[in-house]
Amino acid sequence: MMLYCIVMKGVTMSIDIKYYKTLDTFVRDCKGDNNRYLLFIAQECKFYISLLKNSKIEAYGAIFPEIILDTISYKEGLIAYKLNKNEKVFLQQDINNLTLKEDDFENINSVITFVDGLSLNINSYLDSLYELLAPETQVIGGGAGKIPFEQKENIFSNEGIYKEAALIICLENKIKVGFEHGWSLMQEQAIATLSKENTLFQIDYINAYEFYKSMIEKDLNKTILDEELETYLKTYPLGLVKFDNEILVKEIIKINKDKSLVLGSSIPQNSIINFLKGEKDVVIEASKKAALKAVENCNNKQKAVFLFECVSRRLFLDENHKNEIEIIKENINEKLLIGLLTLGEIVNNNDMNINFYNKTCIVGALC
């Protein structure tokens, strides 16, 4: 077991975290110990909610494409984090109807939240959560789910597993964040002239597929066959331009038969968009900047570090992803790194709301 003991304000606080290859092993190891656990499940882990329910272990968690502990990325197994007594956890089975109130978040400095990453209601959930929190509360997290992208139950407790759900973990400790995406602007802005929820039909009154394809062909200076276009999706995302000119990266996860583009999160009609392009060394450098920013904001006194990174960055970086994780680890002074590959990333940054990103790297330093 990886047991990290750290000192805060004269009090020894332990971070008790362990990787298990199977859910069976976790249950055998922890059954009857009267502790609460936060579980991060890799999608290839054989996960049976009945086993967890029958174990009587109080546990909460979510399923992700991959999980990371220090510099090792796992596609199977799980990470078990033993919750401290002062860490409150709320599972919301329906993100459209939160059962919480402001009093539930008293004396809270930071919140980690996981949400069904393929829900069409993420932004409204984050708006509702924002209304319950004190303005100075730091929020980070990500979207749960599996690849290929298909909405299924992925948020759970030992009582059941749900979709259209969210998990909220409340911390008294402060978390300082850094986040970057590293995708470069390709050309002038355009308008999403026809969209609904997370589907984009037209850009500047032209079929979205044809417009998008023409932008890639122009950049590559070659003609692309229709059957080839999907191979470029991980390299050429879209960017939603906010009122302050910040870019929210939007991943294209699917091309429909009608040649509309399905995005990883909602795209408001008539919003301003940019076309973005990825280069591996620039994307890795952005992750390094996020790590450095987080530890700098923590005055380099981090006790442990959380990483929430879009799974599509992993797919884009391919064999270079291991190098990226090692660089992040090096730049957090070799502190404990707990990472998840997510279907969208969640963070607020002295903002008026909580944002949901795609293809972004978020680093949170536990101070």
Automatic annotation (TrEMBL):
PANTHER family for this protein: BLR0328 PROTEIN
Matches recorded under Pfam families: FIST (PF08495), FIST_C (PF10442)
SMART domains assigned to the protein according to its UniProt record, in alphabetical order: FIST_C
Residue ranges annotated for the FIST C-domain domain, each copy included: 208-349
Protein name, per record: FIST C-domain domain-containing protein
InterPro entries linked: FIST_C, FIST_domain_N
Leader peptide range in chain numbering: none
Domain of life (superkingdom): Bacteria
